[in-house]
Amino acid sequence: MKSPFLLVSGPCVIEDEVTTLEIAASLKAMTDDLGVSFTFKASYDKANRTSITGFRGPGLTKGLSILEKVKKTLGVPILSDVHTIDEIGPAAEILDVIQIPAFLCRQTDLLLAAAKTRRPVNVKKGQFLAPWDMVNVIDKIRSVSDVQPMITERGVMFGYNNLVVDFRSIRIMQEQTHCPVIFDATHSVQLPGGAGTASGGQRDMAPILARAAVAAGADGIFLEVHKDPDKALCDGPNSLFLDDIPLLLKQLIAIRAALVS
Questions:
Q1: In whole angstroms, what separates CA 40 from the centre of its chain?
Q2: Which of 1, 167, 241, 254 is the S-S candidate for 216 at Cβ 3.0 to 4.6 Å?
Q3: Residue 143, SS3?
């Protein structure tokens, strides 16, 4: 049976090995049961936290070791983000998909280095870019690699400390870049810097946007999850409760089925 869409999901950051494995195992069980393709996502280093006091994660070496254990234990593809060219070599040995953060999506040398690994590259669209601006970003990747890249929509700046989503961007980027487009429902409800030394978020809005994105034709959904988001060390206000994911996935599957029936 063909998967209705790709789910990219996991905690915002690796907090510890046990928590990471538990979340990954739960997501794998859910997606296996529902027939949804699943790629596990977690960051080993959050290099762009709002404040110097923000938790960044275990770092490159320990973080990649934990991600490798998830991969070998559960047999799931792994996605994580890179912030510097020096990280790309070690990361490419473990990761199945290399992600370029939204704030770095125009950094030519970073894009080229990631693409040259011949791993699929997922570029998060900058909050400051129009959807058609991603054509130039994707052209950079395709100048050195014939491996199909992906784009993730995560909202655009809407004044200070706020984001809004233009769902037309999904179709526009699909048609103009010929790339699969994933929708990041949890970062799209983030309130950047809205909590002073950290970002705020509107968790209750994320499922609404996820449903709208599937209706708009998104090829995948990106969800950051946690067993207890209120205690998460990063992006808790916009992360979803792990226990709420099965119901949301069933709703998304039903929406996709209605579109193709």
A1: 9
A2: 167
A3: coil
Residues 181/219, Cβ–Cβ less than 8 Å: yes
All structural domains of the chain, each given as residue ranges with its CATH number in brackets, are 6-260 (3.20.20.70)
Q: What is the C-alpha to C-alpha distance for residues 184 and 180, in angstroms, rounded to an integer?
A: 13
CB of 24 within 8 A of CB of 10? yes
Q: What is the mean pLDDT of residues 88-115?
A: 98
User: Are the beta carbons of 253 and 211 closer than 8 angstroms?
Assistant: no
Residue 247, C-beta contacts closer than 8 angstroms, at least 6 positions apart: none
Residue range 138-165, pLDDT digits in tens:
999 999 999 999 999 999 999 999 999 9
At 124, the amino acid letter reads K
For the record, the structure tokens of 250 come out as 């069933």
State mean pLDDT over 192-209. 85
Confidence of residue 1 (pLDDT cuts 50, 70, 90): low
Q: Supply 224's token pair.
A: 């950051």
Determine contact, residues 137/123, Cβ cutoff 8 Å: yes
The secondary structure element, H or E, covering residue 156 is strand 156-157
Tell me the HSE value of 242 on the side-chain side, using a 13 A CA sphere. Answer: 21
Nearest to 227 by CA among 241, 208, 210, 211: 241
Distance CA 18, CA 30 (A): 19
How far is residue 109 from each of residues 15, 47, 80, 112, measured CA to CA in Å?
30, 18, 18, 5
Alpha helices in the chain (DSSP H): 17-34, 60-74, 85-94, 108-116, 134-142, 168-177, 206-215, 245-260
